[in-house]
Every structure is written in structure tokens, then in C-alpha cells.
Amino acid sequence: MSVPKNPRKKAHSSVTIVDVAREAGVSYSTVSRVFSGFEFVNEETRRKVVAAAERLGYVVNLQARSLAGGRSNIIGLLVPGIDNGYISEIVKGIDQELAHSQYDLMLYTTHRYEGKEAYYVKLIANGLVDGLILLVPLIIENYLQALPTQDFPYVLVDQVYNERPSTTVDVTNWQGAYDLTNYLFSLGHTRIGFIAGLNELNSASERLDGYRAALKQQRVAYNPALVAEGDYTPGGGYRAGLNLLRLPERPTAIFAANDLSAFGAMDAAREFNLDIPGDISIVGFDDIPQASIVYPKLTTVRQPLIQMGQVAVRLLLEKLDNPEKEARRVTLGTELVIRDSCAPPRA
Amino acid sequence: MSVPKNPRKKAHSSVTIVDVAREAGVSYSTVSRVFSGFEFVNEETRRKVVAAAERLGYVVNLQARSLAGGRSNIIGLLVPGIDNGYISEIVKGIDQELAHSQYDLMLYTTHRYEGKEAYYVKLIANGLVDGLILLVPLIIENYLQALPTQDFPYVLVDQVYNERPSTTVDVTNWQGAYDLTNYLFSLGHTRIGFIAGLNELNSASERLDGYRAALKQQRVAYNPALVAEGDYTPGGGYRAGLNLLRLPERPTAIFAANDLSAFGAMDAAREFNLDIPGDISIVGFDDIPQASIVYPKLTTVRQPLIQMGQVAVRLLLEKLDNPEKEARRVTLGTELVIRDSCAPPRA
DNA sequence: GTGAAAGCGCTAACAT
DNA sequence: ATGTTAGCGCTTTCAC
Do the Cβ atoms of B95 and A81 come within 8 Å? Predict the structure, then answer.
């Protein structure tokens, strides 16, 4: 064991490559070769080294490897927070995919550096991580501008950024909203309220567009009064729902731009003593896990959240292996999930 | 900018301490002093250095700092996965507390190394992180044994390990279960089914003990037939719920050992066309966010999940700052949360 | 207060 | 196939 001279150094002494080399009676670069793979090493030597390493309980020091060779085998994930079914499902996908790889995950939450996004990203990109997955709803440019070079590998999830060709994974928001609205029509609804998300989010505006397109196609006039402002949160959905339900001509169905808002709208409906789906139909978007736990179970549009995470990782690793590769955008399909929160309007 | 000689090195060139030193016209150890804090540096020199660094856009390389003897300022978190309200709430607390500190978070999920826990922990502890928070339900010893030295800083969340004095944060599981059972008694229930968690988890066994203690105190005979085996998942809760409801003398209330199981039990009750809480009362434990979203809203025992995460971080940082400090155990209080899933039994 | 120099554990030329 | 050597970017003695 090499004894650290530095007293402020981390306490736990560790076995290094040098110790293993001595134990095995070879030079320490040979040991390095054995553990960094790929190099040719005599089978017998390799065995000796592995045995020695095992005896000593050797484990590589990833920092040192990274410093010396360049790769940390860590990818960074930047998110607003993980206390949200939507994000944690995507993270689950990321995690799953990473499990098949040699990479580990560094989790960065944005709230820590509000207003200092640029510095944060620089710190992140400088050294520790090989690439970055950005799952941040807003102000992407603040983050992206700070990337140390044009070609630092990153991928955007669920948002598009047109100023710079960026590797991106998103879903068919427009189509999903279009399909869902048509489903409501097929049930006989024509007065369909819409609880919007923040318009700066392109997922939100695409969904609104899909809703409007379906209206148009059904030759139902678009009525701005039926669109209430929400913000993708249950609280916002609740308030928007209240507004919609107070309307003189109450909608018979409400399309909330995401599931969380739909939950809020459900609460609002209950406050009006309205039966769901008897008196009012409610639908959401995303199909987060809670959507099938609430009562009644929510009809919604499924985004392949887990798959989004997986694809994000795959795209990033692809980029890592082949930096020359051009940025590309993968748009995954959505799917109508019919559950118990809709019924034909009362006659 | 120093040009890396190694072609496989990460593409993005970065500004180093040497560049800053040259720019500022000082030696690079002075630059180091400026950024690693604490050392005495002439105020004017410091200003020059800071200015130069800013001009160049310098950011420290944490790996190098860590390797050289400093701290990585990263703590590791080991969890089974984050797709679970219980865990993600705790993580939220961890994240919040970390935000006030200089530390970043490395997220490790256990499923990647099943059967290789020891190796995994070694890898984690060896180098990259300064300390570790273990939020792993089972087989803790496999993990702990592998810690490089006796004094590698770690803290256990929601589990106790008696073989070695360990810094721990947990909650009053026994008391919570006791209180909750008594609440059910106060409503008039006496036939109270219990859906257990895995008995190896001490949270699960403590809750069962609390339930039994309340029974005893109320002089109600303990009936093993009323205890169904669950596993802390909705699926397990559903099956256990079914078993309980099939009993000749059906319980009038069900105490599920955690909220997730309670959700499963609710589904089971609905399958029997039982009204909750009219025909049967159901309670859970944990108060995860979903508990107030399900319908009817779940009566449960609140664990201060966020606070648990915060305390875990605080304990770890405390240990990091003062390695000599003895391990201690912090047990946080639980609290009865009465919502809509209980009513007196039908006469 | 500041500079010079050693070394953290490892990888990757460059030798042999 | 293996050993030698020079760093990766930084912290930390040890001089001055």
C-alpha cells in the first residue's frame, strides 16, 4: 500500500497499480495494460497480474485514469429536479441504458445555480463528465452557450433548439394532442376545454396546436375562452379547471396539456361535485405512473418516457464514440391510452 | 491553452492553472493558492489572478484537484433506483441540502452490479467520491464490508446495521404504526388486517411490531390470519389485499405497511366492489406524494422524507469535516396524516 | 507572500 | 510482449 504523505488527503489508503506491479513482479505499465483492456499481454503475465490484484484488493482509480487518458466514463445529467414522475421516468430510462454501458451518472440539478447557468455548465463540462444530457425545460441557450467548445457532446431531451444543430430526442406532441382531441370528438364532445402549459415550452405549444388542428378538421370553431392558462403543475391545473368549470356554458370535456394538470383539474371537478367521467370527461398527456393510480384512471397520451431516456443515452454514446457524427433528431411516437376518465357527454 | 498531446483525450481543450499563471505573470502555485482558498495571498496578486482567470474563462478541474490530494467535493448516493416516490423524495431532500454546500452528487444505482456489490462499492469509494449515502433496502453488509477502510465516511438511511457503529438516519416506524393502529381503533375498528413488508427490512418489522403492540394494548388478540404478506409494492399489496378480503370474517380496515401496498389494496377493494371508506378503511405508511393524489386520499403516517435526505447530508458533511466524530443515529419523528380513506365500520 | 518541485494514480507514446 | 518515461491539472511541502 502506498502511504499518502499528504495528511489532508482522503483517509482511506488504497492499493495502486504500483503495488500490484510489485506483487506480480512486473512493471506497472503492464498492470495498466491488463486493466485498460485492448492491449496485448501474454496470457500468463495477465493471470499473474490479475491474481496479484485480487490478492491485494486492487480497484482502479477512475479519476487518475480519466486525468491521464481523457475519459471519465461518467456522463452528466442536468435536470431541474427529480421529484416529478415525468422526469424520474426519463431518468429511469437513462439509468437502464447506462447499465449496459461502462458509464456512470453524475446528477446535476439546476436550481443550485440559478442565474449562473453558464458557470455551472462550464464546471460540469470541464473535466469530470464526458458528455451531457440536458433535460431542462427552459432557457436552454444559457446552458448551451457555456459549453466549452462547439463539439462538447450533449443531447437535448424533449426540447428543440434551433440556433445550433443539436442532437435531440423528442416526441410527437402535435400528433398526440390531435389524436386525443379526436378521441373526445368520437365520444360526442364538442365543447372541449383546454388547459395549456407554458407557451415557451415547445411541447406545450405543439400540444395546443394539435388540439386546434383537430378542432379545425372537425369544423368546430376555436373558442379562446375554452383555453385556460396552466403551467404543467397540479396547482395550475386546479385553478385553470376552476375557471373552465365556472364558464356559463361549461365544457363537457377537459384536455389538460399534461397529466399533472389533469390531476388538478380532477380536484376542481370534484369541488364542483361533478362525477368523472359521468358529468365531465378529463384527459391528460404524458402517462406518468400516477395516471394509472388516480381514480378514475386517467385517459391520456403516452409518451415513451423510459425509451426517451434510453435513446438519449444511445445518442450520446454514439456521439462519444464518433465525435464527427452529425447531430440528429429522433422523434418518438406517442400513443393514445384509453382508461376510465372519459364518457360520452350527458344528453 | 495547453494543447493536449494525447489524441484520444477529450476534444475540448481547457484552460489550466498554468495558462492563468502565465496570463497573470505569477507562478502557478500562486494561482492554485488563490483558488483553493485558505492560503495567504497578497490582495493585489489575488486580484490579478482572478482577473486573468476570468479573462481566460478558467474553471478548476475537479479530478485533478481531487487526485492531487484535495477533495473531489462529490458525494455518492447509492440507491436501488429512483423510480419510486419514496426514494425520490429523499433524494429531493439530499439535493436541497447539497445545494447549500459545495458538493455535487454522483448517483449510483445498485441493479447494475447485482452480486458484485462489494466491487461496486470499492469502485465508488476508491477515488471519486468523498463520502457515501447508502439508501439500499437490503444486504447492507455486502456493501459495507467492501468499504476500503473502517473510516470511509458513509451514512445509512432508513436502516440500521448493528455489526458496526454506523451513522444512521431513520424514523419512528414503531411509534407511527402504533399511532395509526390506535387511530383505527378510535374509529371503532377491531378486525384490522395488516399487509406486511419484507420482514428483513427493519422498517417493515418495526411497523408490524407497532401494530401488534397497539393490538395488545387494546386487548385485542393478535390474529396471524389477518396479517398478509406483502413486499412494499402495489402488486404485492393487491394480492395481499385480495387474500384479506377473501377471509370469511372480513376485516373492516386494512393497514398496509407502506403507501404503495395501500394503493394495491385499494384496487383489490374495488374489485370486490367495496366502497372506500364506506365498506372498508385503508391506511398506508410513508405519505409519498401520490398518497394525496389517489382517490380517496389516503390516510397514512408521514415520514419526513425530505428531511431524512437533508439530515443524511448534514451527517455526512459533519463526518467529512470531522472524521474523528463518532457515528450517531438520528431518529426522526413520524406524524399521523388523516385524510379520506377511513370511516367507522358499518354497524 | 511567492516560487520550485515532487507526486497523486494512471495512460500512452516510445523504446527495447 | 514488456519496460521506461513523460505527462494529465492540481495541491502541497519546502525553500527563499
Answer: yes
